[in-house]
Design goal:
Elements: E1 4-9, H1 20-28, E2 32-38, H2 42-55, E3 62-66, H3 81-88, E4 93-102, H4 109-126, E5 130-135, H5 138-148, E6 152-154, H6 161-169, E7 173-176, H7 186-194, E8 200-202, H8 224-235, H9 239-254
Parallel strand pairs: 1-2, 2-3, 3-4, 4-5, 5-6, 6-7, 7-8
């Protein structure tokens, strides 16, 4: 039925080096209609586009986001923005991402803010959505989103209910993945309980953050069904409804028509 669309994946990761072809084939045989591979560096952004080109004739809905992740920055990163601009012109590039702030890692905050701001300006210039990474930087992320007011997704949302309300007010979407199935996910459950379904998209962040019962194992887009089942339980609805609405939301945020090319 191809009901699953993964808004955030990393099939460029070395965890898939031994069997990437087999994994991608299996996705589309098991209810997945497509995914967006997220860039973290120039190299992974290029890889995402190459992935979409390689499989595009068989699997239409493989796309790439291109961007510089805050964990991967160095003093020369600002110079790479022009390369990201060039990559963003590719027809399979649908967003500037994964970009944002990460205060867990020892990357200078001012450098992170500079590169983040430059990519937010680029997205605005190109009229493209963004995919936001936010780790231990909620206040600064929210301040910059209010300043630049991009469209897009706050991925793997880890903020409070109050922050989620602010994100929704900005017209952005909130990405949720396997974390919602974890036993210690109280705050995430509270956010989902209040979050309007028309602001929710589903993701894996694969190969990371596999849902229960696969926690600690390699994640892939087929496992979104477990995330959807937990969200359906929280929202007192059924899995089909969650998958339908989140797929429609993905179409809106990425400006896609996911009905094309699907049997």
């Amino acid at each position: 039925m191809n009901r699953i669309f993964d808004t955030h994946s990393h099939y460029d990761d070395r965890a898939f080096d031994d069997d990437r072809d087999e994994v991608i084939t299996r996705l589309f045989e098991n209810d997945v209609c497509g995914f967006v591979n997220q860039g973290t560096t120039v190299a992974t952004s290029e890889f995402g586009i190459e992935l979409a080109e390689k499989y595009g004739s068989t699997y239409r809905h493989i796309y790439a986001a291109v961007g510089l992740h805050p964990e991967c920055l160095n003093e020369n990163s600002i110079q790479d923005i022009e390369t990201i601009r060039r990559l963003a012109a590719h027809p399979k590039a649908v967003a500037i991402g994964e970009i944002g702030l990460d205060y867990y890692y020892d990357v200078p905050k001012e450098l992170q803010k500079e590169v983040f701001a430059a990519q937010l300006r680029l997205a605005d210039e190109l009229s493209m959505p963004v995919v936001i990474h936010d780790r231990e930087a909620h206040g600064d992320i929210l301040e910059m989103l209010k300043t630049y007011r991009p469209k897009g997704i706050v991925h793997c949302f880890s903020g409070s209910v109050e922050m989620s309300r602010e994100i929704v007010k900005l017209g952005m979407y909130i990405g949720m993945g396997g974390v919602v199935t974890f036993k210690n996910a109280r705050k995430t459950v509270e956010v989902i309980a209040e979050l309007p379904l028309d602001r929710l998209v589903l993701e894996t962040d694969c190969p990371y953050l596999s849902p229960v019962p696969f926690r600690g194992k390699r994640n892939d887009s087929t496992m979104i069904c477990y995330t959807a089942a937990r969200i359906a339980e929280i929202k007192n609805t059924d899995v089909d409804e969650i998958l339908r609405i989140t797929k429609e939301n993905a179409e809106k945020v990425y400006n896609l028509d996911l009905s094309e090319g699907i049997e």
